[in-house]
Amino acid sequence: MTALAPPDVYEGMVAWQRARHWAHVRLFDSRGNTVLTLVILAILGVLAFTLVRWFVAVADWEVVRANRRLLLVGRFPQGEEWRIWPMVLALPALTALGWGAWGQVGRRSIAAMAIFGVLILPLLTSGTGWWYVIVAAALAFVAYRLARWSWAYPQAHRWVRRCAVGGWFLALPASLILLLIGGGMETTLWGGLYLNVIVSFAAAMGAIPLGILLALGRTSSYRALRLACTMYIELMRGLPLVVILALAWLALRSFLPDLWGLDSVDLVYRVMIAFTMFTGAFVAEALRAGMAAVPAGQREAAAALGLKGRQALIFIVLPITVRNSAPALAGEMIGLFMSSTLVSVVGLTDMLQAARATTEQPDFFGRQTEVLLFVGITFWATAFGLSRLSERVEYALSGTRRNR
Amino acid sequence: MPEATGTLRLVRDRGVLRVGVNDQLPGFGFIRPDGTFGGFDIDFGHALAAAIFGDATRIEFVAVSTSARFSALSAGEIDVLIRNTTWTLSRDASLNLTFGVPTFYDGQGIMVRAADGIESIEDLDGAVVCALTGTTTQMNQDDRFAGTGVRYQALVFDRNETLQEAFIAERCDAWTSDKSQLAARRAAFPQRVGGPESLVILPETLSKEPLAPVVRDDDPAWADLVNWVILGMIAADELGVTSENLDAMVEAPPSQEVARLLGVPVQGTVFDARTGVSVEHMRDVIRQVGNYGEVYERHVTPLGIPREGTLNALWLDGGLMYAPPFR
Amino acid sequence: MATIASQTLRVARDLRVRRATFEALTVTITAMFILYLVQQARQASDLDLAFMGDRAGFAVGDQFLTNVDGNDSRWAVYFAGIMNTIGIAVFGTALAILIGLVAGIARLSSNWLAARLAFFFVEAIRNTPLLPFVVFCYTAIVLQLPPIRDSLSIVGVGFASNRAIALPWAQPTDGAGMWALVVFIALAIAIGVFAALRRYEETTGQPSRPWRVSVGLFAAIATGSFFLMGQPLRWDVPEVSRFAYDGGLQLSPEFVGLLLALALFNGAFVAEIVRGAIQSVPRGEREAAAALGFSQWDQMRLVVLPQALRAMLPPLATQCQALVKYSAVAIAIAFPDLMTVGGTLINQSGEAIPLFILMMVTYLILNLVIAIIFTGPQWRRFNLRPRTRRI
Predict the structure, then answer these.
(1) Residue A94 and residue A132 in one domain
(2) What distances in angstroms separate CA C210 from CA B273, C194, C374, C380, one per listed residue?
(3) Are residues C88 and C23 in the same domain?
(4) What is the pLDDT of residue A211?
(5) Less Cβ crowding at N or C end of chain B, within 10 Å?
(6) Which residues does residue C159 pair with via DSSP β-bridges, in sequence order?
(7) Is the pTM of this model over 0.80?
(8) H or E segment to which residue C375 belongs
(9) Which of C51, C55, C58 to mutate to test the interface with B (most CBs of B within 10 A)?
(10) Could you tell me the residue range of the domain that residue A22 belongs to?
């Protein structure tokens, strides 16, 4: 193969010659491209100038610093933080473990994290916060090293992967239990970024089983079942999430039966139900597409091996389906985390709501841009990290070594 | 503690009172950076909690938007709504809600920039007027402007902070709301964008806005309790009982009415109106929260709205604050 | 006895019977569930929409092709909300497709800078939540335009300020309706001529230039009648007055902010759709076209794009539906869309459940209309159905 590789055009060139050659080929190879490059450079220059001037001269991040607690945990009572810290420590560690178990942190990811860390951390840390951040970072590092080390030992590596997956599945129940034990926290006090995380986490846990059932129902050979599932999916996909949330908020109680206190269930749980119902429909569609892409030969082979319909479904079709639709599923989950900011529409104090409320404090009138940017960057970084992680897992799941 | 039924029982079993409030109105209901609520309306919530549990902190505030407050109350999300809400006939009659004693008498006003030279509503022909959604403001404004033939463009926001951004950017020429709110906004208007002097509140009052607590109308006993805690605070103001002289007043009540208010035995018998809470509940209210005047002083006076000469003064001083007799 | 038992067993084991039973069971459970929902809804409300006929009592600030005020009925105000949502959907989709095409093609560009920029744009948008983005676009971009007295001039004929973006616009005068009718008839004639010429071309092989003839015919009738009927449209240039602009086409900051946010947001997703669609066309198709001597433009127009379109339209329909759904966040920046107006009506009337049902039905109908527009029979000649693989 190597014999067929193109000759190295850079051979014998010094660095600046290489750069010039690269620029010539990639930026200025034709008149049209030269014009395009110059126009883009001009636009970028203006943008960069505006942004830098704003960051240096106008921006005042005091509003974020003063309200960091409100933004992260909302109106969570002082002295009850122990219910949150374990999760704050565990989530980076789990992410790092997963990352290490399925891939490797590239140079770019490190650079991105470093930039993000430099930008964000000073705003969030002072006093006790510092220690937790350091401990969280240290834990994440140890988890990552452990996962990388395990590659050398297949048995250990398998266990690390199991732990990573199991950890994610345990994280939600654990965090809910931590919130509720020992007298518990009233759900109206859950807030800030933590609320976004918990709501999207719970909805993800509920939406995947619901989506599998709906996808199976929609592809079933029973006409009535197919029709019912199709109606449900299309209804959910046809409505804005805002409307569904508003329904869950204002009207769902009229529809819940008067059993086991179901009709007086707290708003946070109702919002979780709404998110689950909504996301479930999208998960079902993603899975259906993945199911359609299962080669017919797989089912035929299963039948030839004597597997019954249900066995073939569980052992052959579903695993391939999940593998096929993993990218779409990851996209849905990231979308879910993003749309969790919509809970502010129904009056929960999530991170976005907390951010918008800060402009009511006399000291910070009209500082909405800074807080909104902060919220945007936080969500962006989390989503970006998650999507990178999901790419690693997809890549590992695909079982092939093909180039991406 | 006496037996309770209905909402009161529900609240007691839950161990905490749920109050729907505003989270973005300086002086009346807002969130401090540490996450706690503060304000005039908030203190009435605390007073209610003090009356029910003897502990003003056994309370949970639910920030509700203007557009969702009634639904939240009807849905049982909250036990009582104390959120600068105007008492109107249609709300009282058609929403299955009951309004209590007004805690604040307000009126809708219009705030403009001083530099624009606007002196009356007639000067606003063709102007853009900002308001919050889901309020009586929108209807009053339409009545008044359409009635005088003044054309206007309504710009209706769901959150106050966005409205304020728009007003600062001069997206709108006028800001209409209750006068107390406008005064609060004006007092806190940042120097960076002109400070309070750059704004003028027009003398015209578009409407009557009695702001009152709201409860569901299926539980009259609960409504009574909410009312009489507020009336008790007004009576305490009238009788001169404050959080400072409370102990002295309990020790030696200057009048029979004070004794009845505070649950002090008179000739061996204690006045018990059977409202479902302890006879001494007003002591907790006044010790932990204060009387009406103290609450007003604490939250509204700093906004630049003095009490003297307004509708919110005691009836003795020519205002509308009047408590029926405690007997 | 034994025979009856085994008979029963056989019937029970019969696949058809089991299937029929299961189907019946599903139908029953679903029907009961729906009945239960209806029952609960009836308990909470009388489900009567008569209150929508009452006077609205509040005005809608921003209106797209409607003209209602507080004295109109609630239906009229609700309709104005629907029209606003439709307006945002139409312009938002058009802009999003434009942005998406540019960014999608740029991502495949040989120019490194263009490809990188498009990549960063797509990644930045796709990982940002919509609601903060909408609020940001409104408060940090559109509201930062100067106030009306310092209006920016747009090439001397239009203005931009945070009061409105005002552009010159053709204002209809007397007889505009008549002229519109004539133009409509001209359009119908042009389409007919186009179809006839095209069929002629296809059957006889004689080149007859259907495009040029029909467009020329349409332009001739439209301009001819325009001058014959005494110029029923007047060129209206906006002027600055005290609180607003007079005349012209005025776009409110709320509309512009929402449009900007939705167009950028959906544009990033459209870019991915476009990129995927172009990449899905096998390279051999284009190479074959090049080998046959097609020009670059014809390769794109006749070979790549029709096939890319086939892959593009279904996801574009989904994206446009998503745009309509996303537009429900308009309430955050005071744009009176369907959701905002519906919310005000709920608050004002207290009739939550009927209004929710009404709003849900409205959104579903809008979705259906979009699906028909993007994937209806009019696209059949592009052979949208997935190709079946034959060995």
Answers:
(1) yes
(2) 93, 5, 25, 20
(3) no
(4) 94
(5) C
(6) C153, C166
(7) yes
(8) helix C352-375
(9) C58
(10) 15-58
Strands B152-157, B174-178: pairing is: unpaired
pLDDT digits (tens, 9 = 90+) for A130-176: 777 788 888 888 988 888 888 888 888 888 888 888 888 888 788 88
Three-state SS at A351: helix
The Cα A56–Cα A77 span in angstroms is 35
Q: Are the C-beta atoms of A210 and A276 separated by less than 8 Å?
A: yes
- Residues in Cβ contact with C107 at an 8 Å cutoff, skipping those fewer than 6 apart: C115, C118, C119, C122, C271, C275
Beta-carbon contacts of residue A327 (< 8 Å; ≥ 6 apart): A390, A394
CB C320 within 8 A of CB C328: no
Q: Do C60 and B154 touch (CB under 8 A)?
A: yes
Residue C165 is given by DSSP the state E
Q: Are C247 and C171 in contact (CB under 8 A)?
A: yes
- Give me the residues paired with residue C250 across strands: C166
Give the DSSP letter of residue A7: P
Residue B133 touches chain C, beta carbons under 8 Å: yes
State pLDDT tens for residues C308-358.
888 888 889 889 999 999 999 998 888 999 998 998 888 777 788 889 999
Determine the structural domain holding residue C39 and report its residue range: 2-44
Task: Say if strands C158-160 and C165-167 run parallel, antiparallel, or are unpaired.
Answer: antiparallel
The interface predicted TM-score (ipTM) is: 0.83
In this structure, are residues C261 and C326 in contact, taking their beta carbons and an 8 Å threshold?
Answer: no
Residue for token digits 């807002």? B30
pLDDT of residue B49: 95
Q: Write out pLDDT tens, residues C196-215.
A: 888 888 888 888 888 888 89
Question: Is the minimum CB–CB distance between B274 and chain A shorter than 8 Å?
Answer: no
**Domains recognised in chain B with CATH numbers:** 6-104+211-317 (3.40.190.10), 108-207 (3.40.190.10)
Cα gap A96→A104, rounded to integer Å: 10
Best of A115, A239, A278, A348 to disrupt the C interface (most C CBs within 10 Å) is: A239
Domain total of chain C: 2
**Tokens standing for residue A62:** 């005091």
What 3-state DSSP class applies to C249?
strand
Nearest partner of C312 among C336, C351, C277, C337, judged by Cα: C277
From the list C26, C136, C356, the residue facing A222 with the nearest CB is C26
Same domain membership, residue C7 and residue C114: no
Look at B162 and C59 and tell me if their CB atoms are within 8 Å. no
Same domain, A327 and A191: yes
